[in-house]
Amino acid sequence: MRIAACLALAAAIVGCAGVEPLTLRLDPSKGRAEPVFFPGAPEVPRYFYAGQLLGDGNYVEANGDSRSKMRQVLGWIAGLDGEAAPEGLQRPQSGLSEPGGRILVTDGSRGAVMVFDPAGGLETWEQAAGLTRFSMPVGIAESPEGRIFVADAELGFVSELDSRGKPVAVIGKGILHRPTGVAYDPAKHRLFVADTPEHDIKVFDAQRRLVSTLGRRGEGEGEFNYPTHLAFARGDLYVADTMNSRVQVFAAGERHRLTVGTRGVYLGNMVRPKGIAVDGEGNIYVVESYYDHLLVYDRQGRFLLPIGGLGKEVGQFYLPSGVWTDARNRVFIADMFNGRVVVLQFMGGGAESEQ
User: Fold this and answer.
1) In this predicted structure, what is the pLDDT of residue 268?
2) Once rounded to an integer, what is the mean pLDDT over residues 118-134?
3) 327 within 8 A of 320, measured Cβ to Cβ
4) Please, what sign has the CA dihedral across residues 302, 353, 103, 130?
5) For 278-301, what is the mean pLDDT?
6) CA atoms of 249 and 61, how far apart (whole Å)
7) CB neighbours of 108 closer than 8 A, spacing ≥ 6?
8) How far apart are CA 11 and CA 214, in angstroms?
9) Mean pLDDT computed over 57-72
10) What SS3 state is found at 302?
């Protein structure tokens, strides 16, 4: 009877909690004592730390309790070993932010896409195609129509999902070997996929047919050595040419226009570039995973600023992977081995805006 009563009480609380509005908050601890800016004084600040995404703990009820705290309370009432494990990120790889506010994050360790919905709470998308679950989701992109493309490196194809995470198509099966990065061209309805061990970028049309291949193995312009992450912005395709220690930019996704970065050991050089993104002012963000930094360049590829270093404190990373931006010029960094997504707010007024 006592167990039944506890379970009934837990169920009643869950029912009440279900109607309690939840707010997605980047910093559930209600902020830090002092804001953190980048670069630090005496330099002119260009960014500030806006918070991080972890999981259930980012959802706060009107009374200030986080969803993870509520799970622990229910676990205690029901006698479930004292507490319930919170849902959250483990090894985030990359992500995207939608105009409506949802933030989608691929998580290789969980084998899923984690969806931070400001209105609906945290969701977990695990199905890649039919009964096949995601194994190693890495790159993610979205079309203006709301179709979501997830490259799974171990499954060897790109999964196309609808806006609610339901699989609707498989792209590149039998053609792709180990896809990692994806990017979408909204004007020409083309999907770019980095096929890392093949050292090329495969291009699929609106009917999801392979129509062309960009690059081959080498060190020259338009050649790659294990390309990984991709981005498409302002009509250009950005390719992390990872083992060539550079980023290549292609006008209209076809003609080489610019090379960003060179191999080296100084800040601003690259060793293992991965995630790439571009903000509203044309600044280019590159994750330098080997040295745990986010590197910022202007649109001409001139180095502006490093942010990072090995660690778990604010402004530090541990083997970061992807990076993306949103319409508010927030910069999201998938801090993989710290199990979080770090969010920085660009304040504007950088070198690019002064030209």
Assistant:
1) 87
2) 95
3) no
4) negative
5) 96
6) 44
7) 91, 93, 136, 137, 138
8) 56
9) 68
10) coil
Q: What is the 3-state secondary structure (H, E, C) of 186-242?
A: CCCCEEEEEEHHHCEEEEECCCCCEEEEECCECCCCCCECCEEEEEEECCEEEEEEH
Nearest to 65 by CA among 10, 20, 7: 20
Distances (CA, A) of 346 to 73, 128, 161, 219, 343: 38, 34, 31, 33, 10
Tell me how far apart the alpha carbons of residues 18 and 13 are, in angstroms, rounded to a whole number.
Answer: 8
- Cα Rg of the chain (Å, integer): 21
Ramachandran region of residue 46, left (φ > 0), alpha (ψ -120 to 50) or beta? alpha
What is the C-alpha separation between 60 and 355, in angstroms, rounded?
A: 42
Average pLDDT along the chain: 88
In the chain, pLDDT over 70 holds for what percent of residues?
84
pLDDT, tens digit (0-9, with 9 covering 90-100), for 26-48:
876 555 668 899 999 899 999 99
Element (DSSP H or E) covering residue 56 = none
User: Phi-psi category of 108—alpha, beta or left, where left has phi over 0 and alpha has psi -120 to 50?
Assistant: alpha
Q: Which pTM was predicted? A: 0.89
Q: pLDDT above 90 covers what percent of the chain?
A: 77
4-10 long-range CB contacts below 8 Å, 24 or more apart? 6/77, 6/78, 6/79, 7/78, 9/77, 10/74, 10/77, 10/78
Q: What pLDDT score does 67 carry?
A: 57
pLDDT digits over 74-84, tens only? 454 445 554 55
Show the tokens assigned to 164: 């609610």
pLDDT of residue 349: 61
97-117 burial by CB neighbour count: b if 16+ within 10 A, else e?
bbeeebbbbbbbebbbbbbbb
Contact of 294 with 319, CB cutoff 8 Å: no
Structure tokens at 205: 């049309």
Q: Give the three-state DSSP class for 5.
A: helix
Of the two residues 19 and 269, the one the predictor is more confident about is: 269
Q: Is 44 helix (H, G, I), strand (E, B) or coil?
A: coil
Does the pLDDT value for residue 126 go beyond 50?
A: yes
Q: How far is CA 138 from the centre of its chain?
A: 9
